[in-house]
Amino acid sequence: MIAQGAADTRVIIGGRKFNGSSVARLDGTDLDTTFTGPGELSALIPAGSLADAGTLPLTVANPDPANPGQFFVSAPFLLTVSPPPAVSRITPDRGARGAVVGGSIGGANLLGASAVTFEGTGVSAAILAGGTETNLPVRLTLDAAAATGPRGFTVTTPAGTALSGAVVFTVTPPVPAIGAISPRTGILGSGAQSLTVDGVRFIPESVVRFNGFDRPTTFVNSARLVAALAAADLSALGTFPVQVVNPDAVHPELAQVSNSAGFEVVQPFLTLSPSPLGVPA
Q1: CA neighbor of 176 nearest in space, from 225, 227, 218, 213
Q2: b/e per residue 39-58 (b: at least 16 CB within 10 A)
Q3: What angle do CA 271, 275, 279 make, to 5 degrees?
Q4: Cα(126)–Cα(130) distance, rounded to whole angstroms?
Q5: HEC sequence for 164-178
Q6: What residues contact 166, with CB distance under 8 A and at least 6 apart?
Q7: Do residues 136 and 127 lie in contact, with contact meaning Cβ atoms separated by under 8 Å?
Q8: What does the pLDDT look like over 190-247, one tens digit per residue?
Q9: In sequence order, which residues have a C-beta less than 8 Å from that of residue 212 and are 6 or more positions away?
Q10: Is there a contact between 175 and 245 (Cβ–Cβ < 8 Å)?
Q11: How confident is the model at residue 83 (pLDDT cuts 50, 70, 90)?
Q12: Which end of the chain is more exposed for a tag (fewer CB within 10 A), N or C?
């Protein structure tokens, strides 16, 4: 297989009964041929023959010594001139840092792809079995420290290399998830207090959001944050949503928001203490 539009290309032809007078022919036209041994020839295919996609018959002709001008011609080998690969989509088109993502690349002439290479560092691709001309299954590994944002990629096949162009894969911050908060309730009017949030996929930049407002947050580790609630957060009764946001300073639109946990502000407890009653004698 040779890529459509390739420059002059030298090919190696294997066979038998070649000699110093053997000539390779492409679609009936003699090629610049070099004899390298009785089982091998080298032939130069001009770029003009590779301008269009399709199949071309390649033969070898040995002169007939008993009949000058006559040739013994081999059976044809069909040489494929393949259109270059093209990329039209990648699914999914995004993934979180630290994740392994299964997906596929769609396009044309992708069969036999040997490599998918992403711009920058931190994203690598393994090509999986089951690919077709129009679909290339891949497994993407995103390093925990991979830079966020969109990045292009290339797909290398026997027919050439395709640039993704406008098709990009976007690396996002990890998606946080809340497992529990402590405490789960606060007393109306009790003033500022700390709130511990336990979960997964927290990052040093994570922010706890209380009732839609970001609160000062201390990163303990990837599974725990501690937020400072303001007195105003406990100034009204009700149940208020607590979320964690993993922001992206470079690409704010890529910020990831967790599920919600409910924090309830309740009335103060009323405690009654018995008092001794004096009984006149």
Answers
A1: 225
A2: eebebebeeebbeeeeebeb
A3: 155
A4: 13
A5: CCCCCEEEECCCCEE
A6: none
A7: yes
A8: 889 999 999 999 999 999 999 999 999 999 999 999 999 999 999 999 999 999 999 9
A9: 241
A10: no
A11: confident
A12: C
**Total-model pTM:** 0.72
Token duo for residue 246: 């993993």
The CA distance from 146 to 142, in Å, is 6
Assess contact for 155 and 163: CB atoms under 8 A: no
The CA distance from 82 to 4, in Å, is 5
Q: What does the angle CA 221 – CA 227 – CA 231 come to, to the nearest 5 degrees?
A: 170
What pairing do the DSSP bridges indicate for beta strands 23-26 and 29-30?
Answer: antiparallel
Name all contacts of 267-275 with Cβ < 8 Å and 24+ positions apart.
Answer: 267/187, 267/188, 267/237, 268/187, 268/188, 268/189, 268/190, 269/187
